[in-house]
Structures are given as C-alpha cells and as structure tokens.
C-alpha cells in the first residue's frame, strides 16, 4: 500500500496472538488509524475470551468475536465436499476454505463500522495473503487492504518481541523462544508448517499431531457408523439428525479415536515455491469418503465422470483464493445440479487410520441387481454387446488398416 494512503479506520483479522497484537499497535502508530478487531470462531478449539480481553486492554473500542462454525461448514465446507475437492491428489483444502469466510466477514464489519481498510497477518511468502485479498477485492473493490508483513521492518521474532515490549504488549513466556512450527486450525482441519518441519526428508515427530491418535495406538476393533445424506450434504450420523457443524464435530471425534486423516504433503504454493505441511482432517476424511460412497449408487456415469474432470479445476480455484470468482460459482452450479439425487445412507468402517465405505443404500439408487447379476436374468440381452463393441472398435480398425497399408506402426 502506498505510504501516502490515508486510512482512518481499519478492521484487523485478530487472533490475540503475538503477531496480530503487534500488528494492532503498529496500525495505530503507522497509520494513525482507529483499529477494529475481528476474531472468528471457526472451530479452532481455542478459548477466544483472551482475545477480547487483550483487545480491550489495548484500548480497542469495537471488538467483534463471531461464532461462524455453522456458516463455515454449511456454506463453505459442504459445497466443497459436494465437489469432492482435493488439491494435488491429497490435500483436503482445510486452510484454503476458511479464508473466504474470514474475508467476507472482514468486509461486512468494515461496512458496519465505516472502516476504509482491512488488515491481515499473513506473510508475504504464503498463499493466505492472496486468499484474503482476492476475497476482499471481490466483495468490495474500494476497500484498502493492509498487509503489515509486506510493509514493516520487523522481520524476526526478536524484533517483534522488542516492539511489543516497547509498546507495553504482554509477551507470554512460551512466545519468547522460537516456536517449533506454526499451526492453523479450524473445524475442518489442522495444519502445521515451518521450522522443525521444513526438511521434507525428516519424518514429523508424533508431537506434531494434535487431532488424531497414531494409527498404531488406535483401537484394535473396528467401529461402524452410518452417515445420512440429502442432496449431497451429510445430515445425520447413526440416524440422529445433526446440524452441519455438530455433525463435523462428531466425525472429528470419531476420526481422532481411530487415527484417521493424517497427511504429510509437499505441495506447490500458488506463488511458486514448494511447502511441506502436516495436515490432520479426521472428520473430513470420513465425510469425503462417505460422499463418494453415496455418489457411487446415485450418480449417473456421465455426471460422475464429468464431476471428476471438473474437480481439479474447482480445487485449484479454492486453493488459489478464487472462491468468489464467477468460474467457481459456475462450477458450483453444475456440481450442485448433480447432487439432486445424492440422497441415502453410507455405512463406514473406521479402523486404524482408514475410513472405508462398506455399504450404501438409497431410494434414488441407479444400481440394478437384475442387470449385474451373474445368474440368469430377463432384462439384459448379452448378444447386444457384440454390436456395441464393433461400433466402438470401428475407428480403431480403420487406423490399424491404415498402418498396415502404409507399412509402419506409428
């Protein structure tokens, strides 16, 4: 942001941690602006009361702490599950999918409070700066976005602590040393990156994993659960109707107990570098497998295969921060149309790190035992296959004859 930009009021995405506490004071000093703090409860599992107290102690007059768990799962996670979205074959997009909701709320609070800018604590090396800012600009192109890590000269933990102490910001004792790795968490997942995890050749210590027991320590007896779906969204566990956030919370507990959802991944960041992360998505891993399970019997082959072709593009859009783009919305409309009959129940087997679909039932099922049975049937004439095969082989036969005629094999 140009140094001569005049900012009167700024809404800060505030966690209550050292970094955003320093940013809060730095914004006041550097821009002489009034700061509004916004802390989102996305199910990260942390007590948010201290964030409010820290903001009050710093003299902040407008403090927002919003419980967004239901909106997060209903309006962001569930649409992504309908798409079966997976980035680079493995990553279930836990950090990525939280950013558009935070951006949306930042913009809403800016409008409510008359702020002319928003600010975030993402660094200049990661994806989150892109996700936050694309979301804000898509929703209000006239809002200014401040990214202190791209502006200030506080480039080290030591300089942050020195600045904090000079401004009377409390620095907890556990923040004075170098953290072994950074953690981001929400109801969908936990991600750990940096420091002790930066060498991709070294196995992550067991202490890195916070949401799951190790598969080796998981129960020796499998647990079976049934997940109910309506139009592509999970609505119940074992017959009990649950809200989106409550359902995911229960799946997280089940996944935790059975060591499900661990991932050690080296991914390609949008800005170009590779990054190693340790991800835990216990409930999400179960849910994604179950959704695939119900689609297997309710989704037509053409629709299913087209979805699989569209999915990588959809996942890239989520990963790269284009949630509010017209192309993501176009893909979502097509995906949601495919879910009209994705209703029924899926039986899952949870055992030592695995979530396996073992049963599927639906009144909307396209599965026909009459057609697939190995016994005698009255609905399928096997001689029809001969003409089908010959028609599909015709172009291959014509190419083979050309090769023979021209005397070569390429």
CATH architecture of the largest domain: 3-Layer(aba) Sandwich
The spatial strand order of the largest sheet comes to: 3-2-1-4-5
Helix fraction bin: 40-55%
What is the ordering of alpha helices and beta strands? EHEHEHHEHEHEEEEEHEEHHHEEHH
| Beta-strand percentage range | 15-25%
Q: What features would you describe in this structure?
A:
- The protein has 410 residues and is α/β, with parallel strands linked by helices.
- It folds into three domains: 9-76 and 94-178, HUPs (Rossmann fold, 3-Layer(aba) Sandwich); 183-299 and 341-361, Argininosuccinate synthetase, chain A, domain 2; 369-406.
- The chain has twelve helices and 14 strands.
- β1 (9-13), α1 (18-31) and β2 form a beta-alpha-beta unit.
- α7 crosses α8 and α9 packs antiparallel against α10.
- It is elongated and about 85 Å long.
- The model has no long low-confidence stretch (mean pLDDT 94).
Blueprint (SSEs and pairs):
Layout: E1 9-13, H1 18-31, E2 34-41, H2 49-57, E3 63-67, H3 69-82, H4 94-113, E4 117-119, H5 128-139, E5 144-146, H6 157-166, E6 182-185, E7 190-193, E8 223-230, E9 233-237, E10 240-241, H7 244-257, E11 262-268, E12 274-280, H8 282-298, H9 301-319, H10 326-338, E13 344-351, E14 354-361, H11 369-372, H12 384-406
Parallel strand pairs: 1-2, 1-4, 2-3, 4-5
Antiparallel strand pairs: 6-7, 7-12, 8-9, 8-13, 9-10, 11-12, 13-14
Helix pairs in contact: 1-6, 3-4, 3-7, 4-5, 7-8, 9-10
């Amino acid at each position: 942001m140009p140094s001569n930009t005049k900012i009167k009021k700024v809404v800060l995405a505030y966690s209550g941690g050292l970094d955003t506490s320093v940013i809060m004071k730095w914004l006041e000093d550097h821009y002489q602006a009034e700061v509004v703090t916004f802390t989102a409860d996305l199910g990260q599992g942390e007590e948010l009361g201290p964030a409010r107290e820290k903001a009050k102690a710093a003299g902040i007059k407008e403090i927002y702490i919003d419980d967004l768990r239901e909106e997060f799962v209903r309006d962001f996670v569930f649409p992504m599950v309908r798409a079966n979205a997976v980035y680079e074959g493995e990553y279930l997009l836990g950090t990525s999918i939280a950013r558009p909701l935070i951006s949306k709320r930042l913009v809403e609070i800016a409008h409510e409070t008359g702020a002319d800018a928003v600010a975030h604590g993402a660094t200049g090396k990661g994806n989150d700066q892109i996700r936050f800012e694309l979301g804000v600009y898509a929703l209000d192109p006239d809002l200014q976005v401040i990214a202190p890590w791209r502006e200030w000269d506080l480039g080290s933990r030591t300089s942050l602590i020195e600045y904090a102490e000079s401004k009377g910001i409390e620095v907890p004792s556990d923040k004075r040393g170098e953290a072994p790795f950074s953690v981001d968490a929400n109801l969908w997942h936990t991600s750990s990156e940096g420091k002790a995890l930066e060498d991709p050749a070294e196995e992550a210590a067991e202490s890195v994993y916070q949401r799951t027991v190790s598969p080796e320590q998981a129960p020796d007896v499998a647990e079976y659960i049934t997940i109910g779906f309506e139009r592509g969204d999970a609505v119940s566990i074992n017959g009990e109707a649950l809200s989106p956030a409550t359902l995911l919370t229960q799946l997280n507990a089940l996944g935790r107990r059975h060591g499900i959802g661990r991932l050690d991944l080296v991914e390609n960041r949008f800005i170009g570098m590779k990054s190693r992360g340790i991800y835990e998505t216990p409930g999400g891993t179960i849910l994604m497998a179950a959704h695939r399970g119900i689609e297997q019997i309710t989704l037509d082959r053409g629709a299913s295969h087209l979805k699989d072709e569209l999915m990588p593009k959809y996942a890239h859009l989520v990963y790269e921060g284009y949630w509010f783009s017209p192309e993501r919305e176009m893909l979502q409309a097509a995906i949601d149309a495919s879910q009209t009959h994705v209703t029924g129940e899926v039986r899952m087997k949870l055992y030592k790190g695995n979530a396996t679909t073992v049963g599927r039932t639906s009144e909307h099922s396209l599965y026909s035992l009459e057609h697939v049975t190995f016994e005698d049937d009255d609905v399928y004439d096997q001689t029809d296959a001969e003409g089908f095969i010959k028609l599909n082989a015709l172009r291959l036969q014509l190419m083979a004859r050309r090769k023979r005629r021209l005397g070569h094999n390429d």
